[in-house]
Amino acid sequence: MYLPSRDVAAACGRTGAAPPQPRRRALVVCTHLRPSRDKRRSTYYMQPITGLHIGSLIDRSAFDVRLHHEDWHGPFDTAACAGYELVFLTGLQPDFDRMRQLAYHFRRAGATVVAGGSICTVFPAFCTQFFDSVCVGGVDSVPALVADFLQDRLQPIYRQAARDISRYDVDYGLFARSGIQPMLHLMEASRGCSFKCSFCVMPGEVGGHATYDMDHFARALESTLAASKPWTFRRWYPLVMLLDNNFSDNAAHMLRVARHLAEHPRVLGWAALVTQNVLQDRALISHLAAAKCHLLFAGVESLDREMLRRYNKKQNLSRRHDVMADIAFAESKGIAICYGYIFDHRHQSAREMEQQIQALARNPLMPMPVYLSVIAPLAGTASFWDDLRMGHLSPRLRLRDLDGETLCHSRLADSEEALIDFLERMFRRPWTVVSRWRILAKTLRRIVNAGSFNPVRWYVMTSANFHCFIWSHQTPPSRRTYRAGTDLLDPQYAEHPDDLSPEDRVRYFEPIELTDADGGPAEWLRPYVPAQPAQPVVRLAVAGSDEAGP
Ligand code: B12
Ligand code: SF4
User: Fold this and answer.
1) Are 303 and 353 in contact (CB under 8 A)?
2) Domain with CATH 3.80.30.20 in the chain
């Protein structure tokens, strides 16, 4: 529920002068389309902080700012679009069609619509047909854009390298005022990553790593702690989740942030996203454990070395270390290890995928993956351009298909039926692949291995181990084909006024296709196709590599 601005101080648990009376209304929508292709909502703790940062950068003396998360609040009610002057939209690649749909509804209601994020960054000129203004790169272009809007000189494209972090205060009161209370304190201490995994959007969109200064971070921490409501878990047991793309990229900065969190009297624990090679450094892991680290989300992705090589994931290719032993060591120090696991349906049969999962399940000290997905050729990544050039992408591949659950390639290592049968079971009925009892036994072994009497740590380990089971309940079976081009579309695609013109239907409501009927680039994409192969060296250069650096 959104609280009007006079309730701000109370909602934030703060005192002080009342905020100035707002003159105009601005809205930031973090769009979201669900894997289950329905209109459910969830209060899952992994909420985006993109909208929070955008909202914090909007001039509050001119605007009353509201934040809507489509995952947390549910799909935005398009009957309620009136009354906003300026609307910012953000979303991941599979959400881009939702950004276009909302642009139609808000523009029709008279708002100026601004969009940013992955697709806007890679294909800005293409995106200008849907939005009044398109932002390339980081959130830091927002103040200049708002100033231009107020002076009636909005530009079609704003560019700001995501690595150029400006100085601004993140106002976590915006979460509280917008009724968003995730279980954890979601923060960011850096942006980007120096590695170049070929399936990832980071190398192209950020192209390096940049840190926030410690002042900035310390103020954001105080803001989120102050904004937590009394009688909530996050007030009672403040856990900070660092959503940095790669928290471990800059070791000195990581240690500074860890020390700040360790020494903070209110923070009881923290978690972060790191690369797998960090787990090899046992002295570092012991140090982080002593600095209140409760959980590391490590970029394991797969135990299939061929696959890791194919995607240039060389930080995972050390032969000197055994990742399972590294994970067991970290957990023995009390740090729960989480990871996502990616299947490559172009090279792995359904049977091989199932064997990989069962091998993980059999190891008593190895956690189960928190997320499972099939490889998604995210538009603009090195693998995407390679697949496109070689004609390996599915015909009529849509942005909507890039959700990590859909087979997006034309060449498969197994029959389509066998792969779909496995994915349907793994995503929707995981207990038919791995028994719940086995996971329960594994959870108990890990808790014993951790040697901790802290029930919060037990909870973290248990919920991570069972996440796939819990997730599958939240995304019940639907009539999905799991095949790009034919899979079910969400109901939002059909929600438009009866008087929608044929041109607007195509512009705002037809799904965006990346490939044509033959698997070649869609017409709009052709000007963007790079002339040279995107990653000519990957397959050979890292073979046998024992290096952990980027
Ligand atoms: C929280 C999160 C989620 C959440 C919430 C998703 C959401 N709606 O944002 C959940 C759990 C739902 C999720 C799911 C998925 N995620 Co996710 N997720 C993240 C995570 C950890 C944090 C996102 C975040 O808030 N970042 C901080 C903000 C400030 O940065 P940002 O969103 O990257 O935006 C930057 C720019 O793009 C730009 N920007 C973005 N929007 C706008 C708008 C305007 C107006 C402006 C000016 C600028 C701007 O500014 C920012 C930098 O300053 C990131 C990793 C990361 N640390 O970023 C991955 C990440 C975004 N996810 C990713 C992936 C692959 C997925 C999945 C496909 C995973 C899967 N295989 O199942 C699914 C897809 C979901 C779907 N709709 O189907 C990829 C990229 C995806 C993409 N670009 O499409 C990332 C980058 C991880 C990675 N390295 O692979 N995810
Ligand atoms: S290490 Fe992670 S964030 Fe960095 S390029 Fe690879 S997948 Fe992307």
Assistant:
1) no
2) 182-474
Asked if 139 contacts 50 with a C-beta cutoff of 8 angstroms, the reply is yes
* Greatest distance between any 2 Cα atoms in the chain: 66
Distance 313 CA to ligand 2 centre (A): 8
CATH of domain 182-474: 3.80.30.20
pLDDT tens digit string along 410-455?
999 999 999 999 999 998 888 888 888 888 888 888 888 888 888 8
| Whether residue 116 has its Cβ less than 6 Å from ligand 1 | yes
Cβ proximity of 122 and 379 under 8 Å: yes
Domain with CATH 3.40.50 in the chain: 5-160
- Please give the CATH topology (third level) of the domain spanning 5-160: Rossmann fold (3.40.50)
Entry pTM? 0.92
- Nearest alpha-carbon partner for 241 in 458, 93, 426, 460: 460
Q: Tens of pLDDT along 77-118?
A: 999 999 999 999 999 999 999 999 999 999 999 999 999 999
Which of 209, 246, 307, 341 has most ligand 2 atoms within 8 Å of its beta carbon, as the pocket-test mutant?
246
What is the torsional sign of CA 118, 123, 126, 132?
A: positive
